[in-house]
UniProtKB/TrEMBL annotation:
<dbReference type="Pfam" id="PF17862">
    <property type="entry name" value="AAA_lid_3"/>
</dbReference>
<dbReference type="GO" id="GO:0016887">
    <property type="term" value="F:ATP hydrolysis activity"/>
</dbReference>
<feature type="region of interest" description="Disordered">
    <location>
        <begin position="97"/>
        <end position="121"/>
    </location>
</feature>
<dbReference type="InterPro" id="IPR003593">
    <property type="entry name" value="AAA+_ATPase"/>
</dbReference>
<dbReference type="InterPro" id="IPR003960">
    <property type="entry name" value="ATPase_AAA_CS"/>
</dbReference>
<comment type="similarity">
    <text>Belongs to the AAA ATPase family.</text>
</comment>
<dbReference type="InterPro" id="IPR015415">
    <property type="entry name" value="Spast_Vps4_C"/>
</dbReference>
<feature type="domain" description="AAA+ ATPase">
    <location>
        <begin position="178"/>
        <end position="316"/>
    </location>
</feature>
<keyword id="KW-0547">Nucleotide-binding</keyword>
<dbReference type="InterPro" id="IPR003959">
    <property type="entry name" value="ATPase_AAA_core"/>
</dbReference>
<dbReference type="InterPro" id="IPR050304">
    <property type="entry name" value="MT-severing_AAA_ATPase"/>
</dbReference>
<dbReference type="InterPro" id="IPR027417">
    <property type="entry name" value="P-loop_NTPase"/>
</dbReference>
<dbReference type="Pfam" id="PF00004">
    <property type="entry name" value="AAA"/>
</dbReference>
<dbReference type="InterPro" id="IPR041569">
    <property type="entry name" value="AAA_lid_3"/>
</dbReference>
<dbReference type="GO" id="GO:0016197">
    <property type="term" value="P:endosomal transport"/>
</dbReference>
<dbReference type="GO" id="GO:0005524">
    <property type="term" value="F:ATP binding"/>
</dbReference>
<feature type="compositionally biased region" description="Polar residues">
    <location>
        <begin position="97"/>
        <end position="114"/>
    </location>
</feature>
Length: 451
């Protein structure tokens, strides 16, 4: 018997016996794999249909050869290859179906024909990118600047950059130009995203709320096209559009020699669009607002392009009290001004999200009392409230029962009091460390301004 031979294709070694495997089939399978690797190595304009055809043909050949193989060792190798090809074939088929899902919806409107026409894959990809960008557009919400406590300097800057140019365009002539690119940075939970949400409610123009997951694709070259589509879509809108990119550091970290080539291309495309290289005549139609918790990790080229870098600090005492009142405005809370002031002192170092979590836990205390109460007071309005002391034991309105014995729609919790908030503070601590605050202070002294 002739000795076994092998051929290596991209670190994959395939063994075969010349008296078992047909050389023609094997050569064709290798050719399909080589064509697939060549097509997949392209940086852009990948022909997905060609990938699918080559993988399908290779899978068909391997499946046929595996059925004819008698020796267990070689059969095992072919079985693994068969499974891998089947998986890749299914993945490509799903992607093609996704790209072509709208391909049968076009109608020849000029001729009044209802006949459906298939859209080419390239057009389907363009439509999907446009659809993905349109999904990031958010409608006008109910949150306004008045709902964001503190941060007056940041609000004023954003009004100058976005709201006033839209309301009073005649004021911005000659050398007076509105800001085009602003970076908000600070500890997590300090209100950066809420400021962006408030802007969407204050303006009457298109607002894009984008994250890295909306712009980064697993397909080579697709991320750059998504970024370009985002800015081109914004320019095409009537009036001035606002693009908000949250967690910008996940896309624009400092460049180094060890990063992948595709990440470099993503950063280059974003830099180009930020500078308005493709639409310099219409660059005034876009305002870019970005937010990050790690400004020192941003590449210097990106930092330079932000005209203002605003530090969003932890709330001070007055802002913390205002935040707590905003969170409890729709709840029954009995606190004096002195008690609010004490809570303001006790929450020093808390971020906005820390305060929200603490308030939520405190407001649960009256509900917990309802669950364990066995004595209830019937109020004149017919509602039942839990009785936590024996002071009312002689009243005719006091009854003994559990929560299951009372009508659900007649149960009313007591008001939240200072003790509930103090109990919540015992289990909720601030999440921003002194070391993190020091890093923000150093960055602000070097490159930022306070908001």
């Amino acid at each position: 018997m002739e000795a076994p031979r092998f051929k290596e294709v991209q670190n994959t070694t395939i063994w075969w016996h010349t008296d078992i495997f047909d050389f023609f089939y094997f050569s064709e399978a290798v050719s399909c794999l080589e064509n697939t690797l060549e097509e997949g190595s392209k940086s852009s304009d990948i022909d997905i249909q060609s990938l699918y055809n080559n993988i399908s043909r290779c899978h068909e050949i391997i499946h046929k050869l595996n059925g004819e193989e008698q020796e267990q060792y070689y059969s095992g190798i072919l079985c693994h290859l068969d499974s891998a090809l089947h998986s890749q074939k299914s993945l490509l088929k799903s992607k093609i179906d996704q790209l072509n899902e709208q391909s049968h919806s076009q109608t020849d409107k000029q001729n009044g024909s209802t006949k459906q026409e298939k859209i080419p894959v390239a057009d389907a990809q363009c439509q999907n990118r446009r659809s993905a960008i349109e999904d990031t557009i958010i409608t006008k919400g109910g949150l306004t600047f008045s709902d964001v406590a503190g941060l007056e300097d940041a609000k004023q800057t954003l009004r100058e950059a976005i709201i006033m140019p839209l309301q009073f365009p005649q004021l911005f002539t000659g050398a007076v130009k509105p800001w085009k690119r602003i970076l908000l940075y600070g500890p997590p939970g300090t209100g950066k995203s809420r400021l962006a949400q408030a802007i969407s409610s204050e303006i009457q123009s298109t607002f894009y709320c984008v994250s890295s997951s909306d712009l980064v694709s697993s397909w080579v070259g697709e991320s750059e096209k998504l970024i370009k589509e985002l800015f081109h879509h914004a320019v095409s809108q009537k009036g001035r559009s606002v693009i908000f990119i949250d967690e910008i550091d996940s896309i624009c970290r400092q460049r180094n020699s060890r990063e992948e080539e595709y990440t470099r291309r993503i950063k280059t495309e974003l830099l180009k669009q930020m500078e308005g290289a493709d639409n310099s005549s219409q660059t005034d139609k876009i305002f870019l607002l970005c937010a990050t918790n790690c400004p020192w990790e941003l590449d210097s080229a990106f930092l330079r392009r932000f005209q203002k870098r605003i530090f969003i600090p932890l709330p001070d005492k007055e802002t913390r009290i205002k935040l707590m009142k905003i969170h409890t405005k729709d709840d029954r809370v009995t606190l004096t001004e002195e008690e609010w002031s004490r809570l303001g002192d006790e929450t020093k170092g808390f971020s906005g999200s820390d305060i929200a979590n603490m308030i939520l836990d405190a407001l649960f205390c009256p509900i917990r009392d309802i669950q364990k109460s066995t004595k209830w007071v019937k109020r004149p309005d017919g509602m039942f409230s839990p009785c936590l002391s024996d002071n009312n034991s002689s009243t005719e309105y006091l009854i003994t029962a559990t929560i299951a014995d009372l009508p659900p729609d007649k149960i009313s919790p007591r008001d939240a009091v200072l003790g509930d908030f103090m109990a919540s503070l015992a289990t909720h601590k601030c999440t921003v460390t002194a070391a993190e605050l020091e890093k923000f202070e150093e960055f602000t002294k070097a490159m930022g301004v306070r908001g």
